[in-house]
């Protein structure tokens, strides 16, 4: 009986080694999946922040444009050339600032593939 148990253990040893390897691989996969999920969660949080920032910036631009339109309408109604010229100067400064911000925050184009 002892002899059969020893032979059985010897016969099952390679299977146990394979099962141990499978378990190790499953644990590695689980660990990688956990890391991937954390990375995806961070990417989603970053995207949510970027969308919120974009919404805030867009709202600010709309407020700026509405304000300038109201000032222009008032200057035109008052027939005030100095106020109109000041608005033109302000519009040019704002346009330059927005163009600089877009340029600064636009990633460089990837190199062309051939």
Describe this structure in words.
The structure is a single chain. The model has no long low-confidence stretch (mean pLDDT 86). The protein has helices at residues 2-77, 81-104. The termini are far apart. The longest helix has 76 residues, at 2-77. The protein folds into 2 domains: 1-33; 54-104. It has 2 helices and no strands. It is rod-shaped and about 110 Å long. It is mostly helical.
The overall number of domains is 2
User: Hey, roughly how much beta strand do the residues contain?
Assistant: under 5%
Alpha-beta content class: mainly alpha
Number of helices: 2
Distance between the termini: 73 Å
Determine the fraction of residues in helical runs and give it as a percent range.
Answer: over 70%
Q: Taking all residues together, what is the mean pLDDT?
A: 86
Q: Main beta sheet, described? A: none
Chain oligomer state: single chain
User: Measured on Cα atoms, how large is the radius of gyration?
Assistant: 34 Å
Low-confidence stretches: none
Topology:
Layout: H1 2-77, H2 81-104
Quick structural overview:
The chain is mainly α and 114 residues long. 88% of the residues lie in helices and 0% in strands. The chain has two helices and no strands.
């Amino acid at each position: 009986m002892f002899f059969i148990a020893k032979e059985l253990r010897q016969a099952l040893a390679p299977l146990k080694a394979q099962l141990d390897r499978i378990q190790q691989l499953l644990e590695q996969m689980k660990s990688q999946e956990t890391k991937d999920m954390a990375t995806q969660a961070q990417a989603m949080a970053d995207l949510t922040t970027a969308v919120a920032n974009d919404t805030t910036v867009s709202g600010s631009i709309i407020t700026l444009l509405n304000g300038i339109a109201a000032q222009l309408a008032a200057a035109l109604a008052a027939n005030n050339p100095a106020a109109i010229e000041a608005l033109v100067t302000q519009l040019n400064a704002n346009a330059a600032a927005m163009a600089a911000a877009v340029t600064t925050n636009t990633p460089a184009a990837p190199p062309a593939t051939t």
